[in-house]
Design goal:
The protein is an alpha/beta fold. It has two domains: about 150 residues, Rossmann fold, CATH 3.40.50.1000; about 60 residues, DNA polymerase, domain 1 (Orthogonal Bundle), CATH 1.10.150. The protein is built from ten helices and six strands; from the N terminus they run βααααααβαβαβαββα. It has a six-stranded parallel sheet, with helices on both faces. Strand 2, helix 7 and strand 3 form a beta-alpha-beta unit. Helix 8 crosses helix 9. The radius of gyration is 17 Å and the shape is globular. Keywords: Hydrolase. Pfam families: HAD_2. One of its GO terms (molecular function) is hydrolase activity. This is HAD-IA family hydrolase.
């Protein structure tokens, strides 16, 4: 590892926040309001993480219904997300323990909304950058978001120590596009153990994540073992 400050890119939904109940409630209402099928929150759980612009057509929605759903969802969910999104237990302590790292958020959520949520949770001080999607700029999906965060922080993963932390395969794949390894967290919204098979490591709880990151910083190299999904 170089002398550069090690950087940890953190996903939001399913990694820092247990936001599925709130997201799926508002998404189900938005889909129904756009004339789509009626879904239960459990049926929509796999959609927590990837951009809705990509995921909603797979539910059989037309382009017009997708656009109407996204607009309605962002209006209703955005009005309450900053005040009603819960953190997973131990996350605040985790971020305190990682004070020796540069932390940045890398989420598929719209960047402005992500910043509002982080601020509402009182976590802004922990992050050098809150990075998210920006459809107007053509930045949609985890790969472009990770690339944007790296660029804005002036990081080159071939030279600088960087790792991603996330709960879905989109995190693993998006980070891998830029040569960044991922630590998967098993408390999130992965739909099967295989979803995180390409992560460098999968951890079962917040303490294990902190220990893995502190060991990475101290060892001077990324020494993760091949991932297995932990209970």
């Amino acid at each position: 590892m170089t002398d550069a400050l090690p950087t940890v890119l953190l996903d939001l939904d399913g990694t820092l926040t247990d936001s599925a109940a709130l997201i799926t409630e508002h998404l189900a209402a938005a889909i129904a309001g756009a004339g789509g099928p009626v879904f239960t929150p459990a049926q929509l759980l796999p959609l927590v993480g990837p951009p809705f612009e990509y995921a909603l057509p797979e539910l059989g929605l037309t382009d017009e219904q997708v656009a109407a759903t996204v607009t309605a969802y962002r209006s209703s969910y955005g009005a309450v997300a900053a005040t009603n999104t819960p953190l997973y237990p131990g996350i605040t302590d985790l971020l305190d323990r990682l004070s020796g790292f540069r932390l940045a958020l890398a989420t598929a959520k719209p960047e402005r909304l992500a910043a509002e949520i982080v601020d509402g949770l009182g976590l802004t001080r922990h992050f050098a950058l809150v990075g998210g999607s920006d459809p107007v700029a053509g930045r949609v999906g985890k790969g472009p978001v990770v690339g944007s965060v790296l660029e804005r922080l002036g990081l080159d993963p071939a030279r600088d120590p960087v790792v991603m932390v996330g709960d879905r395969h989109h995190d693993v794949e998006g980070a891998a596009e830029h040569g960044v390894p991922t630590i998967g967290v098993s408390w999130g919204y992965a739909t099967s153990p295989e979803e995180l098979a390409d992560a460098a490591l999968v951890v079962a709880d917040v303490d294990a994540l902190a220990e893995a990151l502190l060991s990475w910083r101290a060892s001077g190299s990324v020494r993760f073992r091949k991932a297995t999904m932990l209970p």
